[in-house]
Design goal:
The protein is an all-beta fold and 117 residues long. It contains no helices and nine strands. Strand 5 and strand 6 form a beta hairpin.
Length: 117
């Protein structure tokens, strides 16, 4: 499990969560970038397990290792306290998860599970 803010993961499957998830509300003024890469270059899938994000904060997901990759999130990104029912898939075998928070609002955060193949 990873709950850092800047990281590169080379794993087949695992979990990610927002900073302080399960212990406290996530911090203000974040711009976290977490890159996940499948060692076998198989497509990566990500599914949300928990979600409590203030509407002014967002999780963005991209196919590839940069924000110029194909956008896998709706509109400005995933937000709110309803767990998204969709599974997002990065066909390149790499996925970038970006978590952006503002200065004023916080929530409990998010938790996701990812897998390759």
């Amino acid at each position: 499990m990873l709950s850092g803010c800047q990281a590169i993961l080379l794993e087949m499957n695992g979990t990610l969560s927002s900073p302080a998830f399960g212990m406290a509300q996530y911090p203000s003024n974040l711009d976290c970038l977490i890159s996940i890469k499948s060692p076998s270059n198989n497509p990566l899938s990500l599914k949300f397990d928990k979600m409590d994000i203030h509407p002014s904060d967002v999780i963005q997901i991209y196919d590839g290792n940069s924000t110029s990759g194909l956008q896998l999130h709706p509109n400005e990104g995933f937000t709110g306290n309803v767990v998204p029912k969709i599974t997002v898939t990065a066909s390149t075998g790499e996925m970038l998860v970006r978590f952006i928070t503002d200065a004023l609002h916080n929530g409990k955060g998010w938790h996701v599970t990812f897998s390759a193949g």
